[in-house]
UniProtKB/TrEMBL annotation:
GO MF entries: DNA binding
UniProtKB keywords: DNA-binding, Transcription, Transcription regulation
Protein name: LacI family DNA-binding transcriptional regulator
Keyword Transcription regulation annotated: yes
Organism the protein comes from: Kineococcus glutinatus
Domain annotation HTH lacI-type: ranges: 12-66
InterPro entries: HTH_LacI, LacI/GalR-like_sensor, Lambda_DNA-bd_dom_sf, Peripla_BP_I
Record Gene3D superfamilies: 3.40.50.2300, lambda repressor-like DNA-binding domains
Amino acid sequence: MTATPAAGGRPPVMADVARVAGVSHQTVSRVLNDAGAVRPQTRARVLAAIEELGYRRNPAARALVTNRSGLLGVITPFGVHHGPVHTVLGVEEAARALGRSVVLTSLVEVRPDTLRAAVDHLAAQQVEGIVIVTSVASAVGALPAPPGVPVVVAQAHVTGALAGVSVDQELGARLATRHLLDLGHETVLHLRGPDGWPEGDRRERGWRRTLLEAGAPVVEPLPGDWSGDSGYAAGRELLRRWAALPPARRPARRPVAVFAANDLMALGLVHALQEAGVGVPAEVAVVGFDDVPAAAHSWPPLSTVRQDFRELGRRCVLAVLAQLGEAPAGPASAPIAPQLVVRDSSGGPVRRRR
């Protein structure tokens, strides 16, 4: 096929694609929007013409014709936390694959007023839907849904008019706690996340329920704030508590198990223990949550619970499209199952290490 370039060296338009492929303008539109039945041979000719001409969609022209912007808004807390960053990447990747563009708004502080202002700002830009990547339940719970603009929240527990998509946090905590109990530990200590974060609450609930079902002792969790510094402080506090116990009640060079609510706190905990000469996992077995890139390359490599943040972002986009009537409802909003990743920090069965 020999293509005739667009007149005047202008960028190719849909009519040029139709001319080169020998089809109608409507057929090109159906191929581009994956709408309506198009014979495979015809589709192949259209795609070949698009490639030959270097045709790119014009979002402004599309918006004028369809009265749809093709934009999805994303609101996320400002920062470098592993989960939100990778969820936003998943949203952007899925949106791009489905022919949408993303408008990103970052919040220094996630409060009801800042979140409402961000939603209003995006709605004014005529986004077709909004994905909120936050776990601050108080802010999300007070948010009214803007008329005609579907809103989907990643991770936070939502009720009422807003839809939510999340990883099954409680299941992840159960997997981590059960793993440590199955190694032969009498119980599992917990380093929890900060108050007001649904992920932290659900992980604590999964840990607690697993211990109660197993008939294992439940010791109140150590506080944390997701940071490595708080994990390090928790490790120092654990050592202080052990040192303060009467010799008769003091664990005889352990072994003890700790489930930390995220990997950064787990790594800080390991740092404090090893600095004090306490072996991991020989004396303290540790499991984290998230599977950040550093987890596999720490020493010892960290056992953890992996969350598929890219899938979380993809399902958020599908949940928005479902509310727009452009994707099937149901599976997109189902909780995503996490995966236990066993590495050296949790060690082997306790009886082999005594």
